[in-house]
Amino acid sequence: MRTSAYLLSVAAIAISAPAFAQTAPTTEPTTQADAQAGTQATTPAEVTPAPVEEAGADIVVTATRRADRLSNVPIAVSAVGQASLQNSGGSDIRAINQLAPSLLISSTGSESNASARIRGVGTVGDNPGLESSVAVFIDGVYRSRTGVGLNELGEIDRVEVLRGPQGTLFGRNASAGLINIITRGPEFKFGGNAEGTYGNYDQKRLALGLTGPITDSLAFRVDGVYVNRDGFYKNVTPGGGSEARVNDRDRYFVRGQLLFKPSADLSFRLIGDYSHRKESCCGATYYSQAQTFDPTANAAQANGSSVNTDGAVAYSDANPIVDILRRAGAVYPLAGSTANPFNREVALTPGQTYRNTTVDYGGSLQADWNLGGATLTSITAYREYKSGNAGDVDYTNVDLTHRAADGNAYRQFRTFTQEARLQGSAFDGKLDWLVGGFYSNERLRVVDNAVFGSQYGSFAACRLVANISPNPVLQNNAAPGCLSPTGRATITGAFGGAGPLASAVLAGLDRLSTVNNVGDNGSVYRQKSENFAFFTHNIFRITDTLSLTLGARYTHEAKDFGANFNNTNTICPVQQANLSPLLASATVPAAAKTYIGGILTLTCTGNSSSSLNALNLQNNFGEGKVTGTAVLSWKPIPSLLTYASYARGYKAGGYNLDRSPLGGATGVFSPRTNADASALKFDAETVNSYELGAKFKTRGFTLNVAAFRSEFQNFQLNTFNGSVFVVQNIQGCSTSLNGGDTDNLAATGQCTGRANKPGVISQGVELEATMTPIRQLQVTAGYTYADTKFARNLVGNSAGAPLDPALFLLPGSQMSNAPKHVVTSSVAWTPELGSNGLSGLVYVDSRLTSDYNTGSDLAREKKQDGFALVNARIGLRGRDQLWAIELWSQNVFNKQYIQVAFNSPFQGAGSSANVAAFGGTGNALYSAYLAEPRTYGLTLRSRF
Fold first, then answer.
1. Whether pTM exceeds 0.85
2. CA 453 from centroid of its chain's CA atoms
């Protein structure tokens, strides 16, 4: 609460969020193509080097596919220039977090799994079958997933963050927003930049860029970056080839460009790039390990659900899950009920690794042809991306589950895109029109080798024995079923004494304890996506001060899915054959059925079964959508722009590339068939967005204000529940569910009315300001209030299917990774030092964030308290920045915070929120991907 109050007061003083900018060129670009290329518009002889940012600059952006000043563009957009990114220490798009309060970018199990959120809305990146709600474009080319932007990008001209649905201007749809990255293009004057950095964690970074003419009509540019750094985590159990440091950096990037201008009306920009990463990522530490329980008795409800009527929650002195792991040799989690996440120590199973190779490369050709009355732009691109997915994914040295580094765990994208636009003006400039088309063909291949580890069976059996009694006397990790003689006798008595039922349970536990080193060995998921679209975006200048913008788009999306499995879990079919009949027997008590279901679930978690090998899953769909936008803008005075807008956005449906949903909630109880493939499909996400805004600019001051409301239907939510990934389309029901979406029963909560209400609503206010009291001083500040919530009466799709019980906290709650209040600020002072061209640099930026939950299921254990993050840089520069030396620090005050917390795989069940709502016991362990600690160093750079 105090954090929120502080954030509000800071926002009230500052009044707003930055429009950080690169100085508009002396000769303003005359077309979008000129600005997009990062070069000047006129003739080759007139091209000048990249300008240095100056306070109060009004950046030229291409957010509307026209080159226009930011203050004249009637949409919510933040623009970050090269110098602002450089000062903030940014080498990838995560640096924009510090400068754009409505944006949050985080990464999880792999940097290829990055997720971007705008106004609190985004897509969890762990499942490659889901496209991002926030699209990423680099030099006009759509990138398949957000994670590709977490690489070095070389010399950047600017980054534009467009907020709200996009589709009538860019090739690919985006339901929440778009990040448009424009790199520095070739120039017809020799020049370049060089940089060398050394920092703590033995960080070394080298960057070089060169540009110049080859002939009077042909120019080149070459950029290269190399980065190497030790990991932020120490592995306390090295051995068997496991790395000693985790979350390190070892990467390089090269990009070559040619700009061919045979005439003033025709240009071609050819770009080819290649990046390579071989890094250990991403480790996680234990974040919460307490066991909670309901200290009071509660009566069962008539519908079979349980309710903790007084909401009482108590904490145990110990957690039996922790005790089982410790007896199995775990270094982490620590003994007891208190974790120590920020000591940055991890424990890998010796021989396992997070070290993976990621390769991203491709090329594009952009052609711009001035036809006289119109300009034709064509962008043709092909890209390939492959990221290894090996990892010790139980995040403990006890071998519960892992993906071996044998080449059989990776995700791969092959993407071809073609975009064409024709734009011009008519009726003496009264109409500025644009029409275009887009085509993409993407082939996604996911290969998986996730297996139950060498100690999984014993651990899983011990979990179930502890459910009968946590007394360690009953357990013997080395014995069949994790049962000591006392334990075997206790289990026998708990199931009615010696007889068929007790014998079946004991045999099931014995078999469960043998589920070791089995699972996928090169199982393959394939998704082919083909997309074509036609779009138009037109600005009607009704008067000199009043304009109406109308845009429309038709998109057709077709996807084909296939999967083949190579699974070695032969114990699962045996368990199903022996235990599933008991679940259907009327003579078996309900409590016994629950226990038997637990044995089956832990044996066959995620439908891990050799019976899958006989399947050939196939499914496909095609869909067409019409979206569009309308904007009315008015300039009552030359320094003030006001606007009101509506936009409808769309993000394609797809497939959950995980076998877990096959057969639904009880799928593990029986063998699966090819008919189950349709269960992996999820529907398209749509949004209706409304916005009111104003932009004011006067000498030395700019202020942008926007109020927004976005209503999402069929919102695509990806959740890891500790065992499997759950994907549902979050939708609202038109009638009350009477608590069916907040109980712990899978069968309740079916919508009997119409499931046609928004499932997620994001509304709030954004303020942006830049102040330049003197020429060498620029102060920016920003504030975003985003009330981004799930609706009430939620269901799991537009057909009204019940919400998954794991998501019972969602109705009416703030979304994950969606802080209500964010304040950003920066101060850049570049004083002249004498008359010989020397100048200084003093730079500080900060981001203050209110509390938010980092988990899709909103478990209390995944909460991140509000915090402030500060970066700083001080330097000395020679004339025209021929040389510069800078001391810098990121996260100056070493703030310890998490990116994402998650259920530690297979390690317990139930959070304190489950206990508060339903009673019983919650013993789930939680791990977290930590944010980076304080870093600091020295940078030498030159521009020439």
1. yes
2. 28
